[in-house]
Amino acid sequence: MIYLDNSSTTHKKPIGVIWSQLLSITKNSINPSRAGYKSAQRVSEKIFNARELFAETFNTTADNVIFTSGCTMALNTAIFGTAKKNGHIITTVYEHNSVMRALEKIKSTQSVTYSVVTPNKNGQITASEIQKHIRPNTYMVIVNHTSNVTGTTQNIESIGKLCKKHKLLFLVDGAQSVGHEQIDMQKYNINLLSVAGHKGLYAPEGIGALLINNASVSPLLYGGTGTYSDQIKQPVEPPEGLESGTSNIPGILGMYAGLKFVNRNFKKINSKIYKLTSVLIDELKTISGVKLFSTNKHSGVVSFVVKGKDSSEVSNILNEEYNIATRPGLHCAPLVHKYMGTLKNGMTRISISYFNKMSDIKKAIVAIKKIASN
Predict the structure, then answer these.
(1) Least C-beta-crowded within 10 Å: which of 7, 45, 313, 345?
(2) The overall pTM is greater than 0.90
(3) Partners of 92 in the β-ladder
(4) Do 190 and 213 contact (CB within 8 A), yes or no?
(5) CA distance 166 to 161
(6) 284, 292, 290, 330: which is closest to 306 by C-alpha?
(7) Whole-angstrom distance, CA of residue 312 vs CA of residue 123
(8) Whole-angstrom distance, CA of residue 234 vs CA of residue 218
């Protein structure tokens, strides 16, 4: 199989991540925050080291690294944990349903309204356009850093400056950008950053993180934290207060190994992705009957439609006849499809990882040419 659905989840993992999973089952299957024996202390130290590496990489503090079940939980924790009754949020057409459905929920329960910003002709969400939507009760701006539909990457530095100027919380959805873009929470004035481990960090599924900087977040879950166990009131101090329940130790250690792999090989990884993406985009531009929706050669995300064919039909042909795995449909981001006029038939998405080869891309190009000619 030629796997080109890495924006959904990376299929091939680095040796360090694979090894971490074996060790998690054989040596580290221990609840570190619930006991004081030596093995538990050893695993606790590994978890702390993981927090420190995330803090160092994204420029926050270790106690503000919250491990979650994935990017969805990270976004929900950020949105529900900072909700202000009768407040107002600004977001964009690029947002994933992890954001939009959470906003719809607080709209009904907290009377929080939201505005949706559209991009300019280059696909960019500008700070000046966001500023037009600021109201007296606006308290947060939410921006998808890199779109999982088009691969468009936003200038979060300029948006962060605007948020700081107006004292607004800035939540960045880093699901597709973490591992591909250098993100400095202090420099970009990011208060909340969501991380998906199983995408650009090559970690197992079911693990992610919420990184916090100069923000107060209330817990989404309530239960055992391993701290203040004599009290029935939930502690709120991070990280434990936001991590109720038994931690996903294999996931955390897998994501830790993935982050180490990415940090060591950042330029090598993303240079290769750029090279493969460039070839794909440049070739798709030349195919009659193919409409391309992606221009960013750094993201590894390339979406297109074939004239006269539903995106599911195109992906099915790629799968059945060429053994190529791609993603059709709306990609859980309906607003951007509505904006681009593809809500009915969706797009077919190819997404590239470091472990893809040039031969994978060339075979996909040949297959798409044949599909478009029929």
Answers:
(1) 45
(2) yes
(3) 117
(4) yes
(5) 9
(6) 290
(7) 25
(8) 10
d(CA 349, CA 198) in angstroms, rounded, equals 18
Whether a cis peptide bond, with omega within 30° of 0, leads into 239 is yes
Contact present, 339 and 118 (Cβ < 8 Å): yes
Ordered alpha helix ranges (H), the chain: 15-26, 38-58, 71-81, 97-109, 127-131, 156-165, 249-284, 311-322, 334-340, 358-373
Q: What does the pLDDT look like over 304-355, one tens digit per residue?
A: 999 999 999 999 999 999 999 999 999 999 999 999 999 999 999 999 999 9
pLDDT of residue 337: 98
Q: Amino acid letter at 173?
A: D
**DSSP per residue, 208-237:** EEEEESS-----SS-S--SSSTT-SSPP-S
Residue 159 has a CB neighbour count (10 Å cut-off) of 28
Counting other chains too, the contacts that 161-169 makes at CB distance below 8 Å and 24 or more residues apart are 161/127, 161/189, 162/127, 162/130, 162/131, 163/189, 163/191, 164/189, 166/131, 166/134, 166/138, 168/90, 168/134, 168/138, 168/139, 168/140, 168/141, 169/82, 169/139, 169/140, 169/141, 169/215
Report whether 275 contacts 300 (CB < 8 A). Answer: no
User: Looking up tokens 């580290």, which residue turns up?
Assistant: 28
Q: Rounded CA gap, 369 and 39, in Å?
A: 56
d(CA 27, CA 20): 10
